[in-house]
Design a protein that fits this description.
Blueprint lengths: L1 E10 L2 E11 L4 E5 L6 H8 L7 E8 L2 E4 L5 H6 L2 E4 L11 H8 L6 H14 L1 H5 L10 H13 L5 E5 L7 H16 L3 E6 L2 H7 L2 E6 L2 E7 H5 L2 H6 L6
Parallel strand pairs: 3-8, 3-9, 6-7, 7-8
Antiparallel strand pairs: 1-2, 1-4, 4-5, 9-10
């Protein structure tokens, strides 16, 4: 579904992504872990059409239709079903919860389908239904994260890009968010997860990649990397 090969991305004069290659198959949950500043978020911004690569390819295939993400506009990428839930949530603080969710469906015209999607989001996150008429800025950090994921789901993603969903959240809220991510995966949504909480990410990942200073340095199944000595020492806090 997503095939990235030899991607090189610069931000100004800084070479951020260096010959990055990876694959995400349909129905998989793939995780990209790494330290702060490793280039994880730059990877997602490039896939979403917000940063142009210097070289390399990134092809997203939906229903047999390939789309070159390095040449497509962000709007075309969204319409193809590649939807990002950004780091920091980026909700519309002054709009209500229901208005934020409606923004996720702005490319859709199927009113019955939108209504069904909204009901599914409210089933996943009942607190959003309770807070539907409140300003999004009044929500807690965890509730805002739920809103950001819900907004992305209203766009009917074929692949969901999640950028640091656990960032700044309390441990109990993080568990709730990851339970929802696992539930989404079980419904067939393909997920590419960027996460600093390596233990949580590797626990639910089918396949995982480790990024260091802009390069993919390790790859394998989630369980393989969770048991890799280098990963255990560097990312899971296990002493040598």
């Amino acid at each position: 579904m997503l095939d990235v090969r030899d991607l090189n991305v610069f931000r100004g004069s800084t070479h951020v992504l260096k010959d990055v290659s990876f694959r995400v198959e349909e129905g998989e949950l793939a995780a990209l872990i790494g330290a702060n500043g490793a280039g994880k978020s730059t990877t997602l911004l490039t896939l979403s059409g917000l940063l142009p690569p210097r070289s390399g390819t990134a092809v997203f295939t939906n229903d047999g239709e390939p789309l070159d993400l390095t040449r497509a506009s962000s709007e075309k990428i969204v319409r193809a079903g590649l939807i990002q839930c950004p780091e920091g949530r980026q909700i519309f603080q002054s709009l209500s919860v229901s208005e934020n969710l409606a923004m996720g469906a702005y490319t859709r015209r199927d009113r019955a389908g939108i209504k069904q999607s909204l009901e599914e989001v409210y089933e996943l996150f009942p607190i959003l239904a309770e807070r539907a008429n409140l300003h999004a800025g009044s929500l807690s950090g965890g509730e805002q994260m739920m809103l950001a994921i819900g907004r992305a789901l209203l766009a009917q993603p074929r692949m969901l890009l999640l950028d640091e969903p656990s960032l700044g959240l309390a441990p109990l809220v993080v568990e709730k968010i990851f339970d929802v991510i696992a539930r989404l995966k079980s419904t067939g949504v393909t997920i590419f997860l960027i996460e600093q909480n390596a233990a949580m990410a590797l626990d639910i990942a089918d396949v995982a990649y480790v990024m260091e200073t802009g390069r993919i340095v390790l790859s394998g199944t989630g369980s393989e990397l969770a048991n890799n000595d280098r990963v255990r020492q560097s990312y899971l806090g296990v002493a040598a």
